[in-house]
Amino acid sequence: MDVAYLRQLLEQVAEKKTNIDEALTELKKLPYEDIGYANIDQHRNLRTGQGEVIFGQGKTPEQIAGIVSHMRKGNKKILITRADEKDYEKVLEAAPDAVFEQEAGIIIAGGKTQPDPSRGRIAILTAGTSDIPVAQEAALTAEFFGNPVDRIFDVGVAGIHRLFDRMDRIMEADVIIVIAGMEGALASVVGGLVEVPVIAVPTSVGYGANFGGLAPLLSMLNCCANGIGVVNIDNGYGAACLATKICAKKVECTDGKC
């Protein structure tokens, strides 16, 4: 259940529009709801600020739709990652307002979230066009959590001038996610140019010696530039979650005082 739903429930009790027993029935679903094949963490949003997200890979379309159906009452919006067209067709039965972003493999029940201007801006860079699916997973996840996102694609080190031409946009970001396959050099370059946190995402894009993303993963872990964190291979979702937590604590400063 998201915080807004719980607040609404408490307000309804206070205004005597909902009785205490009905409210207790809803609260009994916290901290999780056991539906047999899944334990839905209904308390995650209240606990961490980020609601329960469904990882679609390995689940059947029926299981995904069932989880959506149980989550739907207490969550206006639900994010499903690593999903496909068959998953989407089944989810539509439980959430007719769901949209499918095929390139990213993401389903969003409840429609897209409007960015919250009070949050920090996240710039998402890719080294190449082949890295865009992972970047879109990161971008759509970050936007789902309310972050303004700037997509800057195909600015890898093979043509470094492309990166420099976009430095004005990059410098405006509060957090930067750098997504690269091959040897993953872009993360180190960007980390040496900016003053904000950089989150590096290695991708499985590359020839044989890329080892399915292991080569850029090790390169990023060994970056000589400071202030770079690294998430797992192709983990655009994880990078967006980390960036969101950083942006959630952004404080506006006036006259040198925060």
TrEMBL record:
GO terms for molecular function: hydrolase activity. Pfam families: AIRC. Residues 120-251 form the PurE domain. SMART domains: AIRC (SM01001). GO terms for biological process: 'de novo' IMP biosynthetic process. NCBIfam families: LarB (NF033503). This is Nickel pincer cofactor biosynthesis protein LarB.
